[in-house]
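One-letter codes give the sequence; the fold follows as tokens. Both lines appear below.
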Amino acid sequence: MKATKKPVLAVLTGAGMSAESGISTFRGAGGLWEGHRIEDVASPEGWYRNRNLVLHFYNLRRKNVMEAKPNAGHLILAEMEKDFDVRIVTQNVDDLHERAGSSQVMHIHGEIRKSRSTIDPSLVYDINRVELNEGDICEKGSQLRPHIVWFGEEVPLIGKAVEWISLADFFVVVGTSLLVYPAAGLIMVPGSNVKKFVIDPEIPDVSAVQNIELIPEKASTGLVLLRNRLNTFCMA
């Protein structure tokens, strides 16, 4: 007897997904990121200008991530794997989805607990401690940098993200302003026949998207509502 194929639930998550775990959102007032200009800590130019500043900045963020715990929203998405083929495309660099138990997670903007070679991007290493410092080198002898996609750099996994989302029976956007491209364009991938949901206290402009339902709630509350809504679809 063949097992019933689970419907694919594709999910795009952003900073609001992890905010309830104490992970600071991307920008504060004035376009600053924890007191720093974006171009100083999240660009190739910033890296070449002041490598120690960039390393220190990400060391602090890594410490924050390692001390944080998955919140109820992360746990709900992991639990939904019982009924759905859940595929999470996240803009977040933390590992809270994985720690909550989600088995299919794609980090399109990189991972804070990994480093990579500055001369060979294919050389990626786990960071098992808090700090990545000047003098930490890859096997080819070059300085290691945070495994993060900075502004001005290509997003290598965007094509695979499109593949995942194109398979969706349901598509959900959680906790993102949909302002950072190319990730923001992923909401246009599913066809008009695919039911879509946006969960965020401040709903972004999705007026051009068809077949969409808005849930103006924080991630944990909104995902409870989503789970109930999906149950009604699946039982229909």
Notes: Residues 51-67 form the longest helix (17 residues). Residues 144 and 177 are 31 Å apart (CA to CA). The radius of gyration is 18 Å.
